Amino acid sequence: MALPKQDTETMRALQGLEDSRSSVRLRAALAVGTTPDPGFIGKLIERCAIEPEFYVREMLTWALTRHSASMTVPELLDELRSERAQARSQALHTLSKIGERQAWPAITRALLSDADDEVARSAWRAAVVLVPEGEEPELAAVLSTQLGRGERETQLSLSRALIALGEVILPTLRAAMTDLDPRVRAHAFATERLLRDPDAGFEFAIEEAKRTVALGGAGQEG
After folding, report:
1. Which of 1, 81, 172, 175 could serve as a FRET partner for 53 with CA atoms 20 to 30 Å apart?
2. Rounded Cα distance, 142 and 55, in Å
3. What is the pLDDT of residues 127-161, one digit of tens each?
4. Which residue in 164, 161, 148, 162 sits closest to 122, CA to CA?
């Protein structure tokens, strides 16, 4: 007996998500997002954890945002406990795109300081989207524990996340400017500079901050 047309298309899309060709996987994710079906959610999330191509992962995330948050968010929260770093990172990224505040309690200090840079960066971005009003200073304090971490892209991600919280970060940054670690101090100086002058550029801000730290400057005005 022939399958109904809808069942045939569903089967084709599910198979497409696992095709060896990234172009086919991309089209399959687009098709799933265009015609959302709760039956796809599990496969989309499963694929997010292992998909090697960035642009396909972005389409998978888009497809998930097209489904009901009440169905996607609980499954994404489960992924935050995965041992696979990409599963955690992509789940955090998708939660930030969905923007459902009920996910906030799951953005733990452990995720914000995850040993994997991509997971941590995704957690920082999700946190500043989901943080409840009034809890920004506490989040800034947690994020500040990551100042000085990693290379340029990781540091820039953290600076952007902190700056997104606004001027509530200033007391935390000022405290970090006295840290014993020169990398922490330089990163704090650079972040404050970018907060005051968003057009300065991170490279310029970090080099200026390094000079300030080397000269023993406080970097505080007034």
Report:
1. 81
2. 31
3. 999 999 999 999 999 999 999 999 999 999 999 99
4. 161
